[in-house]
Amino acid sequence: MTITDLHKEELDFFYATYLRKLEDQEDLKSALITGKEWFKNFVAELSAEQLAFSYGVGKWTVAEVLVHLIDTERIFQYRAFRISRNDKTPLPGFEQDDYIIASNCNQRTKEEILEEYLSVRNATINLFKNLSEVELRRMGTASGLPWSVAALGLAISAHQRHHEIILKERYL
């Protein structure tokens, strides 16, 4: 499943900016694996000082960005799981800044962050590799927006890609 396989209504909202960070023919499952490798390599090279770095007042630290990626993936994975199981319950949004404040991520080591990320990403990969075409096409509502299971999976990778670019441009 690629971004070109999504329906127009799945791309005409806030996350379109993120989704368009993926190549048109980039496959959902391979994008998740590529993102996992990038994260592992990126975190391995970070010093404690870099992990704590913020490029401006009120901006997140590198640790906060990394934990934000984990939190968002966990939420999107949960949404995809529920919708894939044909759950029609509209799912609420979340306030990312509140999650970061409550995460205590600036007291965590890069090893702890990486361990959590790998647990979440491996669960995401396992979820999506076992979904059928029918399940990937199922539609639901999250944050007041229409989503297919496939769009949620692609958004996980695209959201990470968005933050990769920010980390490279503004942090390192």
UniProtKB/TrEMBL annotation:
Q: Which residues form the signal peptide?
A: none
DinB-like domain span: 41-163
Which domain of life does the protein's organism represent?
Bacteria
Q: Which InterPro entries match?
A: DinB-like, DinB/YfiT-like
Know the name of this protein? DinB superfamily protein
What is the scientific name of the source organism?
A: Maribacter arcticus
